Structure formats: structure tokens, C-alpha cells
Amino acid sequence: MLQRGLFVGLKTTWTLGKVIFPITIIVTLLQYSPALPWVTNVLTPMMRWIGLPGDAALVLVLGNFLNLYAGIGAMLTMDLTVKEAFILAVMLSFSHNMLVESAVAAQVGVRVWWTVAVRVGLAFTSAWLIHVLWDGGEQMAKYGFMPQSSTTPHTWGEIIWTGVEKAIYGIGQLALIIIPLMIAIQVLKELKWLDTFSTWLSPFTRMLGIRENASLTMAAGLLFGLAYGAGVMIQAVKEDGVSKKDLTLTFLFLVACHAVVEDTLLFVPLGIPVWPLLVIRLTTAILLTATLSFIWNRMEQRKRKEATYEY
User: Fold this and answer.
1) What's this model's pTM, rounded to 2 decimal places?
2) Three-state DSSP class for 140?
3) Which residues cross the membrane (predicted)?
């Protein structure tokens, strides 16, 4: 079991590295070319209202159109304050891997435009609120064990080596998180502890207005991610008769907060406070889901009353 977990961890690290390594080198090269400074100048006025520099737009594009790892790879090349890095982390937590995860939403039966609108809306609203409400975080972010370059690279060879060095250190630090995490997840899967966790979640899902037969989906999505949660969700719809209401509410919760362990720990090497990141995601998911559940219940009550009067 541990051996299988180690294999999954190494495989995940390899998948992660294949994305982060080239992205980090490419973005490093762009930083020393005329292209990225020009894009930065164009985007700076738009990005300023959420407290980010213009080149941070590249992080959001890569994170949303590729995946979370690509966004983190781009962040490793940038000189960001703790506040800027935290804002980007929150935005990427809500909105990343949009193409793949929107396709997952479609398979489950949730409208793609609705999923995209919720995730992008959460990302930009949270960024603006953090920018306006948080006065601190002006110190420069320290990326874990990332070596601090004392000299500015002048030749293309030196620039490429700078990118390679950043990529290797970034992947190495993430591997220290990913491998033990994948071993732990493998243990959870093989010992069937997911079923136990879903039972613990049942009172919580009832509080949100979601029936108990959707708690396994919630547990899978919280622990393992949106794609895995959706797989369980599709099966649950077939076997357990999960209603459209419970399906929508569960997916709304998971859109705002999924893979809470992995997606949170991935940001540790960026030198940001990860506990507030987790709290923001979890609180947002609870408030959103509870609000929609309340509105949905009121609408159902109104329809029942109208049907009674007509009868």
C-alpha cells in the first residue's frame, strides 16, 4: 500500500514537473525580453484595482487555461510581495484548470457557463476584498528554499540557467509535499476511510440542505479534487438517486472548495500564510451553498403553496 502510494506520488511529481519546468524557464526568458514588460505595461492599469502587478495576469492565464501547477511555476519567477502572492493564491484556488474542470461539470450535468461565472466571480471578488481590507503583507515573499540570486543574468545562457535553477528548486519543494500526501491519500482509499469520512460529513451536509446520499461525493471532492469527486458524483446519481438540487448544491460547494489538502499545501513553497487561504475557501463554500440552499427551499415552498391554492 505504501509502495503504491509512493509510486503515485512520484508519478504526480513527474506530471507536475513536466508542466512547471518548461513554464518556469519560458516565463524567465520572457522577463528578460521586451515582450513581457510590454504586456505588463498594458495590463497594469486593469490589474491595479485588485492589487496586482501587470505581469501577474500571466499567472492567471496559465493557471486557468493549463492548470494550477503552471500558475505556480509562473509565480516562482516573479518578485511578489506576500500580499500579492496571497491574492494570486486565493484567485487560483477558486479558479484554475478551467477547461478540464468545466468539462467535468458538463459530465455531471451542471451548466458550464454557470461554473465558469461562479469561479471567475469568486476569484476577482476575493482579490478585490483582500486588496481593500488587508493593509499588511508588503514584505517580499520568500519562496521556501529558493536561492536568492545576487547578480543579474546578462547572457541568454545565464538567463536560462536562472530559470532552470528556479524550476528545480520549486519542483523539489513541491515533491516534498506531494509524495507524502499521495501516500496518505492511497492509504485513505485502500482502507476505505473515505466511507467513514463521508459518514462524519453527513451532519454537515444536512446543515447545508444537502441529503446524506450526497455526502460521499462531498467527501471525495474535498479530499481528492473536483474530477475525482465528479466521478463519485456520476456514480451516486446512478446508484443512490441524488436529486438535481443536491447535485447542484454539492457541486457549488466543491467549485469553491475542493482538494483542500493538496491545493492548499501546493502554495506552501510560495511563502504565504496557507491557513487563511483554507479558511477563505471553506467559509466561502459554506456561505454560498447555504445561501443557494435557502433560496432554493423558499422557491420550492412557494411553488407548493401555489400548487395547493390552484388545487
Assistant:
1) 0.78
2) strand
3) 12-36, 56-78, 85-106, 112-134, 167-188, 216-237, 249-268, 274-296
